[in-house]
Amino acid sequence: AVVYVQLLIDPLDRLLGWLDELQVGTASLARLLGVAADEPPVAAAAARPDGTRIEVRDVHFAYVPGREVLHGIDLTLEPGERLAIVGPSGAGKSTLGRLLAGVHEPTGGTITVGGTPLRDLPLDQLRAEVALVSQEHHVFIGSVSDNVAMVRPDAGAERVRSALAAVDALDWALALPDGLATTVGAGGHPLSAAQAQQIALARLVLAGPHTLVLDEATSLLDPRAARDLERSLAAVLHGRTVVAIAHRLFSAHDADRVAVVEDGRITELGSHDELVAANGPYASLWRSWHGERTPEDTDEPLADT
Ligand code: ATP
């Protein structure tokens, strides 16, 4: 069963959403709203010859002055590493994800990529480095093509088609009433939640960032749609650094390492096996997710907590 979800919003709503969310840092807002004219070609952005390490050093963050939600995060992400971030609701997982993606700037400490603070990267380089995939705001009013090409307006029809094909979306998109010219977004042709997500993923394929931060990208989907999307996502994740926040389709045990965030701090960091053996907070979380299941079932997407 396909769940139809109203993911379709107009650009003004999106802008207002951003303004609402970005209570700090007009620099961040400017970055999100700007469109880079001369981004590197996809191949250049996707290739990672020597790799770029992301270093998070004593990062603090407050949305509202005096009310800190992250209290000194230290973390090093090696190129190509897959890190899962888990922890209780409100612990600061999404906030950390947004900082890693350059949406917000730390109020203390630094995040560097290849030694350069994220805040010093021009927008085109920031976009080539890292992208945030969240469950909100995937589709804008416009054609399917425009929705994919918006990150690279000069991409051309062939690269848009390739990006859609890479995430298994080309066939259904071509079957829409006007094919790739069909208007989607608010008031346009309705899309399922999975289709909207695929459009967002095709956009990512075209943008080709080194690092992806996935924030609950499938939580609006039923398990079957989530599993279908996992295949699409695999094409996007390949060869990239991935930070997955409490993700159903990117099970923690598939990650190279897991970071447990509790009350704005990383309280555990290690491989799935190490943390299960340590029998701490992660082991409890894992048991609550998988307590009723057999070992063979652990390939299933994580249940909602
Ligand atoms: P969940 O798993 O429920 O999504 P989380 O671990 O991702 O939680 P965050 O969403 O990062 O947690 O929230 C951390 C803290 O920051 C919470 O206390 C939350 O209320 C607060 N917070 C989150 N977003 C904002 C915002 N835009 N403005 C002010 N406070 C916020």
TrEMBL record:
Predominantly, its location class is membrane
Q: Where in the cell is it found?
A: Cell membrane
Q: How does it sit in the membrane?
A: Multi-pass membrane protein
GO MF entry, a single one: ATP binding
Q: Which UniProt keywords apply?
A: ATP-binding, Membrane, Nucleotide-binding, Transmembrane, Transmembrane helix
Q: Which domain of life is it from?
A: Bacteria
Q: Which residues form the ABC transporter domain?
A: 54-288
State the residue spans of region: Disordered.
291-305
| UniProt name for this protein | ABC transporter ATP-binding protein
Shown portion of the complete protein runs from: 288 to 592 of 600
